[in-house]
Design brief:
By secondary structure, this protein is an alpha+beta fold. It contains eleven helices and 13 strands.
Length: 295
């Protein structure tokens, strides 16, 4: 029988109250919302927080909306909300692609976007998505609010820049018209963690046979990419003709600069091969969407 160690429990109703409770509790407190990662770890005694701060009643953390030229995703928004959000799908189909292959409906109905990115699991899908599309995390603490680029948010496996006493409140994604995005994943069975996955967003210049890549973002999941990003593949592709050959070469660059580990999901060479292939597929599909050839 798996039973968590004893802990104290508080339920916050506002962000300010949650931050106050977190600051008062110190480094041994943890935030809980969906709980799909934290609770199993507590049952296995891999995590033993002395106090849980429940934020499920903090309604100001919920919702997905357009605000000016940004998409705002509250940290308490559920995976199912993001999957079904028309505004997210319109501007960032990469989010819909990723949410379709995250776990199962039970997890998606309860799990939160903020919880997923704060868990910082190397195999978690949305971290690569938000890094690829250059999202920004908004963090509230006792000293006020600060913003951090998602490309700097994760500092290692299961580690983020969110400090003790701080709370991720929302993600903001800049909307740039004319782009296309996509996410491709290989998993051992439906809903499993990724063996490897890649996400891409791309903007094009020109028309006909004279089309170049104006800008691009490439995220990688579960292959040991720094900050879930392949900056080298982005640099290779930016400004080059948007040809199949260059998309494939960008995939090879992504594979050469990631660092997958050997585990139960496969050998490193296999994962590196997947990084190349999935990056190419994501770029190809993102380009098709940018040119209106695919929804």
């Amino acid at each position: 029988m798996q039973v968590p160690a004893q802990f104290e429990y508080d339920r916050a109703t506002t962000v300010d109250e949650a931050v106050t409770l977190l600051s008062r509790a110190g480094p041994d407190a943890r935030v809980v919302a969906g709980g799909h990662s934290l609770i199993p770890m507590m049952k296995l005694r891999l995590a033993q927080p002395e106090r849980l701060i429940d934020i499920n009643d903090v309604t100001e953390l919920a919702g997905i909306s357009l605000e000016g030229d940004e998409l705002r995703i509250g940290a308490l928004a559920r995976h199912a909300e993001l999957l079904e959000s028309p505004v997210a799908a319109e501007h960032f189909p990469i989010m819909r692609d990723a949410e379709r292959v995250i776990a199962d409906p039970i997890v998606r109905n309860r799990g939160t976007i903020g919880g997923s990115v704060c868990q910082a699991d190397p195999s978690e899908d949305l971290s690569a998505v938000f890094s690829a599309i250059r999202a920004t995390g908004v963090i509230r603490g006792p000293g006020g609010e600060r913003t951090v680029a998602m490309r700097e948010f994760h500092v290692g496996p299961y580690e983020t820049v969110v400090a003790d006493g701080e709370l991720l409140t929302e993600l903001r994604v800049p909307i740039r018209p004319g782009g296309g995005s996509a996410y491709e994943k290989v998993e051992r069975r439906v809903g499993d963690w990724a063996v490897a996955a890649a996400g891409a967003i791309i903007w094009l210049d020109g028309s006909g046979d004279d089309v170049t890549v104006a800008d691009v973002g490439i995220g990688l999941t579960a292959v040991g990419a720094d900050h879930f990003v392949s900056a080298e593949a982005e640099d290779f592709l930016r400004g080059r003709p948007a040809t199949e050959e260059n998309l494939r070469q960008a995939g090879q660059v992504a594979a050469e600069h990631c660092n997958p580990i050997v585990d139960q999901r496969g050998p490193a060479d296999y994962k590196r091969h997947l990084a190349a292939e999935l990056t190419t597929r994501a770029l190809r599909r993102a380009m098709a969407r940018a040119t209106g050839q695919e929804a």
